[in-house]
Amino acid sequence: MARALPLYDEFMRIEVTGKNSVTPQIRAYAEYRLFATLARHARVIRRVSVILGSADPQAAGHLTCDVDVGLQDSGSVRVLAHGRNMHAAIDLAAERIGYVIERLEASNGDSV
Is the predicted pLDDT of residue 8 greater than 50, yes or no? Predict the structure, then answer.
């Protein structure tokens, strides 16, 4: 018997916004990078919210990537990463949020 696909509400959603304008290339990179990191944990993730920006538009090296992940059973987790460019900030945030969710799953089992 064929396995039914989950309802739309059960898929992990990634929303990318910016404090300033976000180019389509940066938006696509953030979606790709976070999906690649979080896909293996999709069964426990409801949504992913990404906010890209800069604390000070004139300050080099202060670009930020704020990632908030809503989990099925235990609320949400959040990381904030800074980088010299937006790609670096996104990469660091993806690495950190992947680590946080792996640690949660290890400590709580699959009931994250």
Answer: no
Is the four-CA dihedral 54, 57, 62, 63 of positive or negative sign? positive
Q: Work out the angle between the directed axes of helices 24-38 and 86-108 (0-180°, nearest 10).
A: 20
Q: What percentage of residues in the chain have a pLDDT greater than 70?
A: 80
Domains and CATH numbers, the chain: 11-108 (3.30.160.100)
Strand partners, 48: 14, 69
Work out whether strand 63-71 and strand 45-54 pair parallel, antiparallel, or are unpaired: antiparallel
| C-alpha dihedral, 32 to 33 to 34 to 35, nearest 10° | 40
Which long-range contacts (C-beta less than 8 Å, at least 24 apart) are formed by 34-38? 34/67, 34/90, 34/93, 34/94, 34/97, 36/94, 37/94, 37/95, 37/97, 37/98, 38/12, 38/69, 38/97, 38/98, 38/101
Burial class (CB in 10 A: 0-12, 13-18, 19+), 9: exposed
Length of the chain, in residues? 112
